[in-house]
Amino acid sequence: MIQKGPKPYSQDEWKRERYEITNLIDDLIGGQNYDEQLFIVNKLTEKICNFILISRKQWQGSGKWTPRLIKKLDGNLYKIDEITYKGYIPRLQFIYACLI
To answer: How far is residue 54 from each of residues 7, 37, 89, measured CA to CA in Å?
Structure first.
């Protein structure tokens, strides 16, 4: 069972996750200052990464495990995630757009 990965999102779960990610992107765009954006981008990055992992039948992670799992799954996605944290926040929108 562990090797098969998690069960895929149901249609309702997929819609809920998509809504939460979109809501966080809106919060990020409307962020008043860097401090607010920093907190939002942290949550958004983990949310998008876990969305990608589950969508590709991989177990999700938290903390240090999220980037490790993304890197193992797809080195190119890992590079995009790394660039995003270095100040290129709009890339989060690009990553999300690729998912839908």
So the answer is: 8, 25, 22
Q: Measure Cα distances from 29 to 1, 2, 11, 23, 55 in Å.
A: 40, 38, 27, 10, 25
Would you state the structure tokens that stand for residue 71, as one six-digit string? 């890197």
Domain boundaries, the chain: 12-99
Residue whose C-alpha is closest to residue 20's, from 77, 96, 75: 96
> Measured at the alpha carbon of residue 72, what is the angle toward residues 39 and 8, in degrees to the nearest 5?
75
pLDDT tens-digit profile, the chain (100 residues): 567 888 888 999 999 999 999 899 888 888 888 788 878 888 888 888 889 899 889 998 888 888 888 888 887 776 655 555 555 455 565 565 655 5
Total-model pTM: 0.72
The Cα diameter of the chain in Å comes to 45
